[in-house]
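Changelog-adjacent note: as of this version, every example in the card shows the full chain rather than a window. The one below runs 97 residues end to end.
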Amino acid sequence: MHAAVSDCFAKYPFAKGTAYQRFSCIYQAHSHYGPAAMGAQYSLLLQVDLASLNVGKDVDSGVLTQEEGKATLHWVTDKAYTQASRYSRVATQPQRN
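Full-length structure tokens:
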């Protein structure tokens, strides 16, 4: 799945006018592999996909520059990773009685 998503970024680099094509490509890759491949973070990953689309639309419309869009997307991805890591640690900790 990671390779499929990476291919989407290669085909549709983060540039003005590519938001919908990139989002569609990534969404199709995630849909193809589904929740079984992504585990407990499936819904979180879909939120990142939607955030990526919104950032891309802001770049397309000129609200953000390409560099601002890249920085914003990086921030969203880091935040999602932190949240997913925190969830994973909590889910794997033994329950105390």
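Structural remarks: The helical segments are 2-11, 19-38, 42-61, 66-92.
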